[in-house]
Amino acid sequence: MIKALFSEILKLKKVRINKLLWIIPLLTGLIAFLVGGVIIFSPFAIYWWESVFLYLLIGLLFLMDFNMEKKAGNFQNVKYNLWSFQIYLAKIFLIFIRVAISSLFFIILVIVLNKFFSGYTELLLSKSILSIFLLLLSVFWNIPWLYFLANFINGYLLIAVNTLVCLLFGSIISQTQWWFAFPYSYHYKISQYLLGVQPSGIFKIINLQLFDVMSPVLLSLLISLLLIYFTRWGKSND
User: Fold this and answer.
1) Which of 91, 138, 156, 223 could bridge 187 with an S-S bond, Cβ 3.0-4.6 Å?
2) Is residue 203 helix, strand or coil?
3) Which residues, at least 6 apart from 52, have a Cβ–Cβ distance to it below 8 Å?
4) pLDDT at 170 over 60
5) Could you count the other beta carbons within 10 Å of the beta carbon of residue 3?
């Protein structure tokens, strides 16, 4: 696993798409400012991040890796290799780490600009970082999900559909009692409970229980383990 991880890190050293780790958070902040203005900048920025740009970033990082492997002998490095499963795990882990770095940059940017704008919504650094970490865990399932679906769907179409499903359906279903059955709604629950940002983009503090916060995280991790298990099963039976 360590060898596979270092091998994947070496592949990413000169990849230009890594610039997206700071470009996309800046773009999110700009759109939130242009659409929502100064007063509701913070909740709007978080709303746009979770509804569009977070899933878009995951999709673009996946697509970059997918295209690299396709050019490098049509996936021969990962399909016909004794270490194929370890390579897949390394890929999933590195996408998660890069999204985490980008998310941390995003939340610090929002907090700094919120102080500058002196908006009425106050975000605490410690609470915001915790929220971003739990939010990341709640979307972790999407990374192995993309690798699974890429066996059946064109990569470009896949990231477009993946992002649109989150935007068009995730926020709506997250406001219903059936949110637990739709993984695209999980991350909306985290920012709703911990940061007070509702799936509609409105800021409203609500009372919460520990179970409310942890249930979408646990569901995401469970789905992730199932997807990774089936990937392992598939690799062992190639």
Assistant:
1) 138
2) strand
3) 28, 163, 166, 167
4) yes
5) 11
